[in-house]
């Protein structure tokens, strides 16, 4: 199988699909021509979890912003896009990772772990469910999703290794402490034998939350490939599934777990 070109990004807070910022992002993606584009977590419209109190009206506006956003991502005409969107989940929302392939949006995974602190009152806005963590075939490779905080639960990355995934993606909306997120990405790669890519928000929300950008990619065994920056908000790497398969036979991936 030929290498798969993966693009990861840092995209601005409160992103819209009209105007100069979107035109610039669209042009950068068209120039890069990736097989898979990975966006940050819930990329469109303002960050809801700034507010401590849930608002049904604000939740519905976010859903509508992401409906427009997914239409714009589909219009990019890429082989595949991985992103996330809000959908109703009872009286709260679910944060649902999705893939877009051949013009079709497909649900992948719903976020299960939520922080609850200033700037990230996510547990007040979103709820998990019993849908679990299952890999998906995207652009010909097996992919596992960890939505932001889920990357801090290393057992989930190791579990994806059991399914022989080649890539773990971490769409996120995280703050200025980039070191802990880089450690989480490197460890996910090390314990799973996979490539790991993460895209993040960047900039300041209306409520004062500061997003740190710093998207990254790791090759198997925790080898850093590239990071995004203000000067390079989109980066590309090539994924070779054979390298991931080989790493999953090496230390520490082969070490059996104790039940």
CATH topology: Nitrilase/N-carbamoyl-D-aminoacid amidohydrolase
How much of the sequence lies in strands comes to: 25-35%
SSE order, as H and E? EHEHEEEHEEHEHEEEEEH
Give the total of beta strands. Answer: 13
CATH class: Alpha Beta
**Cα-atom Rg, whole angstroms?**
17 Å
Overall pLDDT level: 97
CATH homologous superfamily placement: Carbon-nitrogen hydrolase
- State the shape: globular
Largest sheet: 13 strands, mixed
| Ends apart, CA distance between termini | 35 Å
Poorly predicted runs: none
Short overview:
With 259 residues, this protein is an alpha/beta fold. The chain has six helices and 13 strands.
Molecular structure report:
This protein is an alpha/beta fold and 259 residues long. The chain contains six helices and 13 strands. β6 and β7 form a beta hairpin. The protein has one domain: 4-Layer Sandwich (Nitrilase/N-carbamoyl-D-aminoacid amidohydrolase), CATH 3.60.110. The longest helix is centred in the first third of the chain and has 20 residues. Strands 1, 2, 3, 4, 5, 6, 7, 8, 9, 10, 11, 12 and 13 form a 13-stranded mixed beta sheet that branches. The model has no long low-confidence stretch (mean pLDDT 97).
Supply the key terms.
6 helices, alpha/beta, 259 residues, Nitrilase/N-carbamoyl-D-aminoacid amidohydrolase
List the helices and strands and how they pair.
Layout (H helix, E strand, L loop, with lengths): L3 E9 L7 H13 L3 E3 L17 H20 L4 E10 L2 E10 L2 E7 L11 H4 L10 E3 L2 E5 L8 H9 L4 E6 L5 H15 L2 E10 L5 E3 L3 E4 L3 E5 L6 E6 L1 H7 L12
Parallel strand pairs: 1-2, 1-9, 2-3, 7-8, 8-9
Antiparallel strand pairs: 1-13, 3-4, 4-5, 6-7, 9-10, 9-11, 11-12
């Amino acid at each position: 199988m030929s290498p798969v070109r993966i693009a990861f990004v840092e995209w601005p807070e409160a992103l819209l699909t009209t105007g100069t910022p979107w035109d610039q992002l669209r042009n950068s993606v068209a120039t890069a021509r990736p097989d898979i584009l990975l966006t940050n977590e819930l990329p469109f419209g303002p960050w809801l979890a700034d507010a401590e109190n849930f608002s049904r009206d604000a939740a519905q506006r976010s859903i509508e912003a992401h409906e427009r956003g997914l239409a714009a991502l589909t219009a990019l005409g890429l082989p595949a896009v991985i992103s996330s969107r809000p959908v109703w989940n009872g009286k709260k929302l679910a944060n649902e990772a999705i893939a877009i392939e051949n013009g079709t949006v497909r649900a992948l995974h719903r976020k299960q772990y939520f922080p609850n602190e200033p700037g990230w009152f996510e547990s007040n806005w979103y709820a998990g469910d019993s849908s679990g963590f299952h890999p998906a075939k995207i652009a010909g490779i097996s992919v596992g999703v960890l939505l932001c905080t889920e990357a801090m639960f290393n057992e989930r990355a190791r579990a994806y290794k059991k399914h022989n995934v080649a890539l773990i993606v971490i769409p996120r909306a995280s703050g200025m402490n980039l070191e802990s997120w880089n450690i989480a990405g490197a460890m996910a790669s090390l314990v799973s034998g996979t490539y790991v890519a993460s895209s993040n928000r960047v900039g300041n929300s209306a409520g004062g939350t500061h997003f740190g950008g710093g998207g990254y990619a790791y090759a198997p065994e925790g080898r850093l490939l590239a990071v995004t920056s203000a000067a390079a908000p989109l980066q590309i790497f090539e994924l070779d599934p054979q390298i991931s398969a080989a790493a999953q036979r090496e230390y520490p991936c082969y070490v059996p777990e104790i039940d």
